Amino acid sequence: MRAVTCLISCLLCCTIVAAQPADKKLEARIRPLLENFPGDAGIYVKNLRSGKTVNIAADTVFPTASMIKIPILLGIMKKLEKGELYYHQQLVYKDSLLYEGEDLLGSFKSGEKIELSKLLLLMASMSDNTASLWLQSLAGGGIRINQLLDSLGFVSTRMNSRTTGREAFRNIYGWGQTSPKEMSALLERIYRDALVNDTLKDRMLRTLSRNYWDEEALSQIPPEIQTFSKNGAVDASRSETVLVMAPHGPYLFTVMTKNLSDTTWQSNNPGWILARKLSRLLWEYFEPGYQWSPVMEVTGNPRTDRHD
């Protein structure tokens, strides 16, 4: 029975990531964004209504950085579905859980209590690494999360950090690895498929709709439009995956970068500029009559969203 279930999951995944009708017109508009880009970039776009896609190096493997938190979220939901964890379950924070950085959870004193639901909020919205590593452990650890991904037919998306046997991959990709096509497929399956029961599916989508890091791709989408997203960034990589509930039909895109020559954390980092330009181009392409004028360049203090 388990073998049959795994086969069905693999077939579903293959259906999603298999060759789709290409949107050559859109691709021709996107490609100039990559001219003279100071690093490696991959882009995957899919109109969920028409099924048309754009695939530019979308099978290339990139560091996930904090986008690995989507598989962690799914791992927790599987535990909730089995009754092994509870959404409002009280947990006790310990200093040994601290991941040095600027995380909110790291300001807790040892022995303080926090609900599992709030850990999920901190992970998905604030990208809190202390909360995320704690949740990774609660989900069963990297090996279990990778087994879950494998059972769903994903071959490039893997957890590396704190995962036995993945040390060599961590040296290359950091916390996790994926491709633009697979990350898009995972987000699409969370939206479309019965990966968990309907209640928990709603939980996942609501959790992914509360992204604090909204100055890049999300800044180019009108604030009244529902989005589900996750970003990831380390020194030489800036990436983002977004599902946009646009008036003329939902579309999703993932833009991933690596080997950036510019490793600064200002808003004019080329990886973030690419994310903003791509997001704006896609919105204007799919919703040409929508009256809204986004701010293209975001200015301010250097970002500190390092998730390695």
TrEMBL record:
Protein name: beta-lactamase
BP GO terms, sorted: beta-lactam antibiotic catabolic process; response to antibiotic
InterPro entries reported in the protein's UniProt record: Beta-lactam/transpept-like, Beta-lactam_cat, Beta-lactam_class-A
Classification of source organism: Bacteria, Pseudomonadati, Bacteroidota, Chitinophagia, Chitinophagales
Keyword Signal in record: yes
Keywords, sorted A to Z: Signal
Annotated TM spans: none
One Pfam family it belongs to: Beta-lactamase2
Domain of life: Bacteria
Methyltransferase is among the record's keywords: no
The family this protein is said to belong to: Belongs to the class-A beta-lactamase family.
Signal peptide coordinates: 1-19
Record's catalysed reaction(s): a beta-lactam + H2O = a substituted beta-amino acid
EC code: 3.5.2.6
Domain Beta-lactamase class A catalytic: 42-257
One of the record's GO molecular function terms: beta-lactamase activity
